[in-house]
Amino acid sequence: MRILAKDMNTPFLKVDDIDVHYGPVQALFGVSLHVQAGEVVSVLGGNASGKSTTLKSVLGLVTPSSGRIVLEGRPIQGLSAPDVIDLGVASVPEGRRIFPEMSVYENLLMGAYPRRREKEQIEKDLAEVFESFPRLAERRKQAAGTLSGGEQQMLALGRAWLRRGKLICIDEPSMGLSPKFVDMVYEVLFRWKAAGQTILLVEQNARIALELADRAYVLQHGHVILKGSAAELAADPMVQKAYLGAA
C-alpha cells in the first residue's frame, strides 16, 4: 500500500484494521481509515472493492469479525444501526431507501425522529431543506415513491440533513442520476462541506468525489491500496488511469 500523506491525530472517526466476512467469504482485509471533524473523506473503488461494506460497518449494518471502529473516542463496532444513529450519525444509503407510500414531508420528518422534541428547530431545518431543494417543496404532499430518481436522492439527502448528524455517511449519491441531478446533489454537498459538516462518502464517480473530498482512500478487493489528499490522488497516474479516464 502506498501512503501519499501523513495521518492526522485525534480522528473523529477511526476505522482500525477491520476484517469483514459474509459467511465464509471475506470482504474486507485489515481496512483502516480515519475522518477528522469537519472533514470530507471519500472511499473509492470499483465493483466488489469493499467500499460499501466499509460504510455499512461504520453504520452498524455489518459487524467486523476483527478490528475496531471508534467514534469520538467510543468503540462502536458491534453496535446495532439504531444505536449508531443515536450517537449522532446520519445515513444516505445506496438506492435512497425512501418510504415510497409516505409523503415527501413525512419522509423528511422521519430523518428528524431522533430529535423529535426539538420542534421549533426542526421546522427551521425543514425550511432550509425546502430552500435547498425547491422540487421537494413543490412536492411536499406527494408520495415519495412517485418521485424521479434524482428527486428521491434529494429527499434522501434532505432526510439525512434533518437528522443533524455529527457525521453523515453517504453511499453512491450519483448512482443512476443524470448529469443535471448529479450537479444538483453535489452543489448541496459542497454547501455542507463549507458549513463544516463531517462526511464519509462512498462514490463511484471518482472525479467529482475528489473535487469534494479533503482526503480519499482507494480500495481494491477489500484492501486499502492507496490513500492521501484528494489532490494527490487526483494527480496519481494509477488513479487517473483506473478511475479518471486518463490515457
And the CATH topology of the domain at 1-40 and 48-87 and 201-247?
A: Rossmann fold
Contiguous uncertain segments of 5+ residues: none
- Judging from the principal axes of the Cα atoms, what is the shape? globular
The residue fraction in helices comes out at 25-40%
The largest sheet is:
7 strands, mixed
| H and E order | EEEEHEEHEHHHHEHEHEEHH
Strand-residue fraction?
25-35%
What order do the strands of the largest sheet run in, or round the barrel if closed? 1-11-10-4-9-8-7
Q: Tell me the span between the first and last alpha carbons.
A: 23 Å
User: What is the count of β-strands?
Assistant: 11
Average pLDDT, rounded to a whole number, is 89
CATH architecture of the domain at 1-40 and 48-87 and 201-247: 3-Layer(aba) Sandwich
Describe the overall structure.
It is a single chain. This protein has helices at residues 51-59, 81-86, 104-111, 119-132, 134-138, 149-163, 179-194, 206-212, 230-235, 237-243, and strands at 2-3, 13-22, 25-35, 40-44, 66-71, 74-75, 89-92, 167-171, 198-202, 215-220, 223-229. The longest helix has 16 residues, at 179-194. α3 packs parallel to α6. The protein is built from 10 helices and 11 strands. A 7-stranded mixed sheet has the order 1-11-10-4-9-8-7, with helices on both faces. It has a domain at 1-40 and 48-87 and 201-247: Rossmann fold (3-Layer(aba) Sandwich), CATH 3.40.50.300. The chain is of the alpha/beta class and 247 residues long.
